[in-house]
Amino acid sequence: MASSSLIRFCFSITILILLQSCLHSVVSAKKTYIVNMKHNQKPESYATHREWYIDHFQTLTSASPDSLLYTYETAYHGFSAALSPSEVEALRQSDSVVGLYEDTIYKLHTTRTPEFLGLDKELDPRTGLTLRLDFNFLSCLQELDRASENVIVAVLDTGVWPELKSFSDANMPDIPSRWQGKCVAADDFDPKIHCNKKLIGAQVFSKGISASTEAKPLQSPRDTNGHGTHTASTAVGKQVQNVSLLGYARGNARGMAPHSRLAVYKVCWDEGCAGSDILAAMDMAMNDGVDVISMSLGGGSATYARDPIAIGAFAANEKGIFVSCSAGNSGPSESSLSNVAPWILTVGAGTIDRNFPAYASLGNGEKYTGVSLYSGEGMGEEKVGLIYDMGNNSDMCLNGSLDASLVRGKVVVCDRGFNPRVEKGLVVKAAGGVGMILANTEASGGEELLADAHLVPTVAVGKKIGDIIRQYAKTGKNPTAVLSFGGTVYNVKPSPVVAAFSSRGPNIVTPEIMKPDVFGPGVNILAGWSGAASPTELVDDTRRVEFNILSGTSMSCPHLSGIAVLLKAAHPDWSPSAIKSALMTTAYTLDNTNSPLLDTFNYSLSTPLAHGAGHVDPHKALIPGLVYNATTEDYIAFLCSLDYTMEMIETIVKRPNVTCSRKFRDPGQLNYPSFSVLFGKSRVVKYTRELTNVGPVGSVYKVSIRAPSSVAVSVKPTKLVFGEVGDKKRYTVTFVSKKGVSSMKNEFGLISWNNAQNQVKSPVSFLWTRRK
Question: Which residues form the Subtilisin-like protease fibronectin type-III domain (predicted)?
Answer without folding.
Answer: 669-765
